């Protein structure tokens, strides 16, 4: 399964479904686009700036990613397809990189990104996504 930063943040910040995100990382071999690290780091930075976690905790979170992510997928290999998907959906390319990787790898994306899920509703791309709640009802 491919995991996005909306789920990855749950590993480190006490958000809704954090326990399910932890379970996912223990039960599945997870892959992610290289973009995942930058998106996750940005989310951790925001949490640090809001006082949710400390600078030290933020750095420790990044240091543990290799334990959770089995393999990183190069974004440049799917960027053209991601641009096509972004055009069809009228949605940011960075989210569409995840979708393009899902198509290429024939796997599903585990996401907690409600904006993305709303955008995909009623499209063929929704088949590529699953939420933590759907995986662990």
Explain what the structure shows:
By secondary structure, the chain is mostly helical. The chain has nine helices and five strands. The protein has a single domain (2-135), classed as Rossmann fold. The chain has helices at residues 5-12, 18-27, 35-49, 55-63, 65-68, 79-89, 93-105, 114-120, 132-135; strands spanning 2-3, 30-33, 69-73, 109-110, 129-130. Helix 8 (114-120) links the parallel strand 4 (109-110) and strand 5. The protein is globular, with a radius of gyration of 14 Å.
What's the architecture in CATH terms?
3-Layer(aba) Sandwich
CATH class: Alpha Beta
Rounded average pLDDT: 96
Strand content: 5-15%
CATH topology: Rossmann fold
Radius of gyration: 14 Å
Q: What is the CATH H-level superfamily?
A: 5'-nuclease
SS class = mainly alpha
Give unreliable regions as ranges: none
| Total domains | 1
User: How many DSSP E strands?
Assistant: 5
Q: Main beta sheet, described?
A: 3 strands, parallel
Report, as a whole number of angstroms, the end-to-end distance: 18 Å
* Approximate helicity band: 55-70%
Number of H/I helices: 9
Strand order in space, largest sheet: 1-4-5
Helix and strand element order: EHHEHHHEHHEHEH
Estimate the global geometry from the Cα principal axes.
globular
């Amino acid at each position: 399964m491919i995991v996005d930063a909306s789920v990855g943040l749950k590993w480190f910040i006490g958000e809704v479904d954090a326990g399910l995100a932890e379970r996912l990382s223990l039960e599945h071999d997870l892959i992610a686009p290289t973009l995942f690290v930058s998106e996750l780091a940005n989310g951790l930075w925001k949490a640090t700036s809001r006082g949710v976690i400390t600078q030290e905790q933020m750095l420790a979170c990044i240091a543990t990613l290799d334990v959770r992510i089995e393999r990183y997928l190069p974004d440049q290999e799917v960027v053209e397809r991601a641009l096509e998907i972004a055009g069809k959906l009228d949605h940011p390319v960075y989210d569409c990189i995840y979708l393009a990787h899902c198509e290429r790898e024939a796997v599903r994306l585990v996401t907690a990104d409600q904006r993305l899920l709303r955008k995909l509703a009623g499209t063929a791309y929704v088949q590529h996504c699953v939420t933590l709640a759907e995986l662990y009802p």
